[in-house]
């Protein structure tokens, strides 16, 4: 899988959503005017961030241990450097990105230190009204919890208000219903929904398409079966 694009069109929440869903190993290259960063993913989670002078340097090493050796690091240093470099990565708002999967080889003992779901929710809390409106513009949208929502919500470190929003998501209440019941700000609610959707905690309930004469597909099917039985 190879994806690429502009950070002004696809923010990190959208990018991380794709990489989390596919659980791929690979390298995300992020380039701004003054920075070039290689973000190493293992099974959809970030394990390391490496600044480079030239992008092609990234592809000289196909073994992750060789990368650490060049950086004069040990695997025990990964968390410290990841925490230090994450703010630098997430502060980039303009630039381009590309992801190449299956390129880098990781040893079994390299484990993700920060759940990608936690980063997704952190970034979602900073989205603008225009950004959230791209996915959650209709107040009549309905969401339901994913089957493994408890596990993912734990990884995401939800805030109290986000937990209350999640509690009310039942596959029946609309965005508008939740907003009224909690008396929460529109942007706060939509940020939470955007993040939980990207983190896989919730999913959208598809509306049943209506046909002419206000008939649903299921109702039409029943009528056809009755007619056949006459």
TrEMBL record:
Ranges of residues in domain PatA-like N-terminal: 4-129
Pfam families the UniProt entry points to: DUF4388
InterPro entries in the record: PatA-like_N, WH-like_DNA-bd_sf, WH_DNA-bd_sf
Gene3D superfamilies registered for this protein in UniProt: Winged helix-like DNA-binding domain superfamily/Winged helix DNA-binding domain (1.10.10.10)
Endpoints of the signal sequence: none
Protein name listed in UniProt: Uncharacterized protein DUF4388
């Amino acid at each position: 899988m190879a994806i690429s694009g502009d950070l002004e069109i696809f923010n990190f929440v959208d990018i991380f959503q794709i990489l989390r869903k596919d659980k791929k190993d690979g390298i995300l290259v992020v380039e701004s005017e003054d920075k070039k960063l290689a973000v190493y993913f293992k099974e959809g989670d970030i394990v390391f961030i490496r600044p480079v002078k030239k992008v092609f340097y990234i592809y000289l090493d196909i073994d992750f241990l060789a990368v650490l050796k060049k950086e004069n690091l040990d695997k025990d240093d990964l968390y410290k450097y990841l925490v230090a470099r994450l703010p630098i990565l997430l502060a980039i708002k303009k630039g381009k990105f590309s992801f190449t999967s299956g390129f880098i080889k990781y040893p079994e003992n390299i484990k993700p230190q920060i759940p990608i779901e936690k980063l997704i929710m952190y970034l979602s809390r900073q989205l603008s009204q225009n950004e959230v409106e791209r996915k959650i513009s209709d107040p009549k949208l309905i969401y339901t919890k994913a089957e493994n929502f408890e596990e993912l919500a734990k990884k995401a470190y939800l805030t109290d208000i986000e937990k209350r929003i999640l509690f009310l998501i039942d596959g029946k209440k609309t965005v508008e219903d939740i907003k009224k019941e909690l008396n929460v700000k529109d942007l706060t609610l939509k940020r939470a929904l955007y993040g939980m959707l990207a983190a896989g905690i919730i999913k959208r309930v598809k509306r049943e398409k209506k046909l002419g004469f206000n008939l649903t597909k299921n109702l039409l099917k029943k009528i056809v079966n009755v007619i056949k039985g006459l």
